[in-house]
Amino acid sequence: MSQPAPFLIRLQQHTRLTDPACNDTVVQLAFTALPHQSLPPFIAGQYVRLRLPKQPELQGAYFALASSPHDTTTYDFVIKAMHPLSEALVNLAIGEEVEVEGPMGKGFDLSKHKGKNIILMGVGTGIAPLRSVWLDLIQHRADYGSISIYAGFLSAMHHLLTDELQSLAEHDIQVSISLATGHDDWHGPVGYVQHALQEDAPNPDNTVVCLAGMNVMVDACTDALLGLGFNEQQILLNF
Questions:
Q1: CA atoms of 20 and 172, how far apart (whole Å)
Q2: Across the chain, where does the E strand assignment appear?
Q3: What angle, rounded to 10 degrees, do the helices at 193-200 and 215-227 form?
Q4: What CA–CA distance (Å, rounded) separates 45 from 128?
Q5: Residue 64: what are its φ and ψ, rounded to 5°?
Q6: How many Cα atoms sit within 13 Å of 94 on the Cβ side?
Q7: Which residue segments constitute the domains of the chain, with CATH numbers given?
Q8: CB of 234 within 8 A of CB of 204?
Q9: Which residue has the higher pLDDT, 75 or 36?
Q10: Of residues 174, 235, 175, 238, the one with CA closest to residue 208
Q11: Phi-psi category of 59—alpha, beta or left, where left has phi over 0 and alpha has psi -120 to 50?
């Protein structure tokens, strides 16, 4: 099957997620299709390649979709300013256009795991593809057993999608947030997500885990899961 032709999307909403005092800038960007066009459907956890037509000197890069696969009107992204393209995306003005290729990647197709317990694990902007997954799971909540999310952030200033994560209890989704750097007012886990997972020691029976994040995090979480009795077939990646 040939890859669909690139298309344009337009920035509709720009929200900073990190604290203004934080040296790292992470934003949530919501894009819509151009008039009389539609956005291609996608599987939760898939990603696209973005580039800026007005800045062709910037090499395109891949970003995970953070929106619900049930919303055909919007593509959301969680982007950290790390390299020239991401810095340009972070500084986009409302109404500016971005070129998209995709969606692509295998994503997290959980339809074949109905009836199972689901664990989502991600750190930093790795929360982006997991947001797509939990928005999908909310639409099919009765099809799954327990759902748990283990999210990790560097500090309280990097704590992304705070309100949304806290609201997931309304959908019987348990959330554990770990900070690598704690502070006096923080009463949650301090350390890495795999440490919180090991502390909880979830039962691996009838459970699958979706991992998203940097390779070093994925490797560390995989080792922790194997140590808890999970097997490699229960550990899902989106690429």
A1: 32
A2: 7-16, 26-33, 47-51, 61-64, 74-80, 97-104, 117-123, 147-153, 173-179, 207-212, 235-236
A3: 10
A4: 8
A5: -75, 145
A6: 4
A7: 7-104 (2.40.30.10), 110-236 (3.40.50.80)
A8: yes
A9: 75
A10: 235
A11: beta
Q: What is the pLDDT of residues 86-112, one digit of tens each?
A: 999 999 999 999 999 999 999 999 999
Q: Do 175 and 149 contact (CB within 8 A), yes or no?
A: yes
Q: In this model, does residue 2 exceed pLDDT 60? A: no
pLDDT value for 61: 96
- 209-229 pLDDT, tens digit per residue, is 999 988 899 999 999 999 999
**Token pair belonging to 68:** 């619900």
Two structure tokens written together for 41:
């459907």
On whether the CB atoms of residues 149 and 120 are closer than 8 A, the answer is yes
Indicate yes or no: pTM above 0.90: yes
Are the C-beta atoms of 175 and 165 separated by less than 8 Å? yes
Higher per-residue pLDDT: 96 or 155: 96
Question: Based on C-alpha coordinates, what's the Rg of the chain?
Answer: 18
What would the two tokens of residue 66 be?
């953070």
CB 236 within 8 A of CB 210: yes
Strands (E), 144-216: 147-153, 173-179, 207-212
